[in-house]
């Protein structure tokens, strides 16, 4: 599996795509809100370990979203 090179705009795009706050994304990958801010501002570069975590989080969120759509969630149906 090839590891994606995460740029500031990629990290921001990931967050926005899955409606995550900087805090929520930080909690998913084990870093602080401020660190996510610094990554998105281009003031810090993610380590190789963090890039691997971001790859996994992206894949997991995408898979979870696809499962919800297949089950009918998000299509205007009401589920109790």
- Percent strand equals under 5%
Helix and strand element order: HHHH
Q: What is the general shape?
A: globular
Supply the number of structural domains.
1
The count of strands amounts to 0
Counting H and I runs of at least 4 residues, what is the number of helices?
4
- CATH class category label: Mainly Alpha
How confident is the prediction overall: mean pLDDT?
88
The CATH architecture assignment turns out to be Orthogonal Bundle
CATH-assigned fold name: 434 Repressor (Amino-terminal Domain)
CATH superfamily: lambda repressor-like DNA-binding domains
- Poorly predicted ranges: none
> Distance between the terminal alpha carbons, to the nearest Å?
39 Å
Largest β sheet strand count, sense and barrel closure: none
Overview of the structural elements:
The chain is mostly helical and 80 residues long. It has one domain: lambda repressor-like DNA-binding domains (434 Repressor (Amino-terminal Domain)), CATH 1.10.260.40. Helix content is 61%, strand content 0%. It is built from four helices and no strands. It is globular. The chain starts with 7 loop residues before the first helix and ends in a 10-residue tail after the last helix. The model has no long low-confidence stretch (mean pLDDT 88).
